[in-house]
Structures
1.
Amino acid sequence: MMIARDVFVWHSGSKTFLDVVGPEGYNQQWQAADLALERKWGKAEVAQLHAAPLNFAIGIPLRSWHTHWKFSRSFAFLNKPWKWNLLDAPRGMVDQSRNAIAQKAKEIGASHILFLDDDHTFPPDLFFKLYSHNKDVVGALGFRRVEPFSPCVFTWLTSPENGNLMVRERPEWIKTGLRRVDAIGFGAVLIRMSVFDRLGPAPWFKFSEVGEDLHFCDLCAQKGVEVWCDTDLIVPHINDEGMEASEQTFYEHHQWKTQGKTA
């Protein structure tokens, strides 16, 4: 099913029937229709028709005392389903914050959780684009906020020196569509809540030789949960100067590097 977002139809509501049967007859007609529907399908099935199709949570592990105005603006314009819950865990360790937010999302019965970092900006259709992919774990493509501004999409490597888990950045994947990946940065990631049951008990996020977000992706790999990235969906990373690091920033820095210049 598709939605044409640039087409609007205004329904003025019940004009034909009201003119014929009047307000009292109109109400009787629809009450009788509702009863017939309940007799055929049952009250529970009819009630389900009016239930929210999505109950999802937005989780923001706040890291700063004051969120950047660019984040606040993009969050305000983010298109959201009509039933959503905002969960945050201010100024704690980010792995603890993510675990606490995920646990709260489970308690409120959310079907999905959208993790957003408060130092990113987002396109308005972020959620619906991620949701449309119908994946257990799918994220947008972010970039490091400092030089070399490389993309946060990875494949796994093992250190030849100590055997520790490492990652390899994949800049060649920028804007190449939806890809299955080993790991992604968690600037904007949508997770189906059933994933946490598959991963076992908390903590699902913790610091190890890699960050808490990459640890989650490693846990997904161990449990057979696929991780995907929409590499066309860019979420710029806000640095301390207010600059938004994106693919353009990365390409400019790469050009400076190859030409032997200083950024």
Note: The chain has a mean pLDDT of 88.
2.
Amino acid sequence: MPWSALSPWLFWFTFTGTAGHRLSLEQTGPFNCFTALTYILDPNGATVASTCGGYFLDATSPLATTGTYTVLIDPRDANHASTTLTLHDLPADASGSTTIGGAGVPLAMNTPGQNGLVTFPGAAQQVVTVHVTSNSVGRGTLTLKTSGGQQVGATAWLGAGDVTLANQTLPAADTYQIAVDPYDVNTGSLTVSVTSP
């Protein structure tokens, strides 16, 4: 829905949020970090999430309560412009599991802000390579983590085509996580698999 800021005032719209749901927010238009801030406020007026004007607001934490939430645009100084906001009620992240040398897991991330997660069991000091194929998401990140969320090795950057996160040494016996995070409003699908030399 478009909102035209004709003077340096606050602009907002409200929506009904449901406890446990996550949100993301697209913004298009000329606002930026120097000209506006955007907030999502809970029914009590507390900030749930914020970003610069015009910037994508990635997945929020799950909403704490059901009620009337507010998206607030706060132009800085005397700045004015028009912007279009699109609020997304995020589905659960795409997920699946595999084994080392097992079948690839297809992930469909069709809503901006939706991520992907693939798990697999690994042994201490085992060397693995993570493969991404059939990538229509475009830009994003690929990260290998322990079950506790500690990153293993470097982050790989998704782009056009196939990507590998090669020769990662697993620190301990664990169920590992492969996290896929599309950049900004990118959506699409890809397939994740894991091999060992």
Note: The chain has two domains: 2-90, 94-195.
3.
Amino acid sequence: MSDFNQVKKQLNDVGCGFCLAKWSQVTIHLLNGTTHSCHHPIPHKIPLDEIKNNPKALHNTKFKKQQRKTMLEGGRPSECDYCWNVEDNSNSFSDRVFKSSEQWSFDQYDTIKNLDWREDYNPRYLEISFGNTCNLKCAYCSPPYSSKWAEEIKKFGPYTENHNFNSLDFVDNRIDSTYKLTDENPYTEAFWKWWPELYKDLHTFRITGGEPLLMNDTFKVLEYIQEHWEDNPNLSLGINTNLSVPRHLIDKMITICKDLTENNKVRELIIFTSCEAAKEQAEYTRFGLNYEQLWVNIHDILDQLPKVVVNIMATFNALSVFSYGDLIERVFEYKKKFHNDVRYWEGALLLDTSYLRYPSFLSVNILEPEHKELILESAKKALYYGKFENGYGFSDSQIQKIKRTYDYALITNNVDMTYTRQQFAKYITEYDRRRETDFNKTFPQLKEFYEKYKD
């Protein structure tokens, strides 16, 4: 469905908090046995006793069923407050609408709204994370999603600001335990038991991480699809990767993707990567990234895989505002160069913008009003490039997502942000010390801001 107003109306006919993603979509983190439907709510634990006899409980936990019950009865689950913030503070559409409007999800509207909340439901969209092995330490990430982050925290301890996102004690208490890739993992075992049945019903399957290309299970599941593709030739396959791993792994992925796409073993294949700034500012935020090498790898994928789309997931944060326009220009350059008839009308390269909420001291909320106006300038630049009629501009939804980041930033214009800004400064000071970086040199636009709140 592309009529977002109509989708919102039909959702609200069921309840003001009704979202199809609670049934049709799921992300499962096998490393620690957690799950969530949609990337905004904090993942919750999957009890081992629930998956012992029913591997479908990787998605259909008792906790999640209670959230479904709330939605069907007209309530708004508190864990979905990202969307409530958007809907209550702007005229933009929330992800409740965007996610529910996906045709593979909206097709299930009548079935889901009439479903008993206690029933299991096989998702149409599955994201799976096999582990947290990763070679980057992005500023806004944390140990459950990056082994490099975990190594740093073990060496130096948690950062000194008053936030738990990088505390191993907090992480262990919240998720109970984690499993190394070499461990016997009951969650991974449940996945492989469920997978042959689930694979046949999936519309979209997406592999996430950590960094998936560093994990053997990633290539195991891709090889399964190569061999059993006739069970689901209409699968939409997505692979997350930071595209910063050793080149032989990029080449291995390209080889498999070429077989899958050229021999029509999947309906479509999208490679998801991440970037939310440009040049040295991107490298500062996504520590370990080589920005130009990222674009070399994107170029080679688009050049060698003419049926593949690359989607850049931008986690827009306080360090994005000054170079996001440069990122938009580079994306448009590649859209234009690699556009062809078999790719999306927006081009071979997409830019999907969401705003960072946690940790709060890195969100756009902490910035001064003049900094926030730069977000709107980025939206205007994308809007300008969206006017091109040759099929490779920015779509309305891509532009809307930048604009809603601006709307979100304005929420705190009349709020005292002193404490959160002080936490930002403490974090940056410790960040520079541990990683031997130089914030003031990299972000001269924020030097005065940083110095003001540092002491």
Note: The chain has a mean pLDDT of 91.
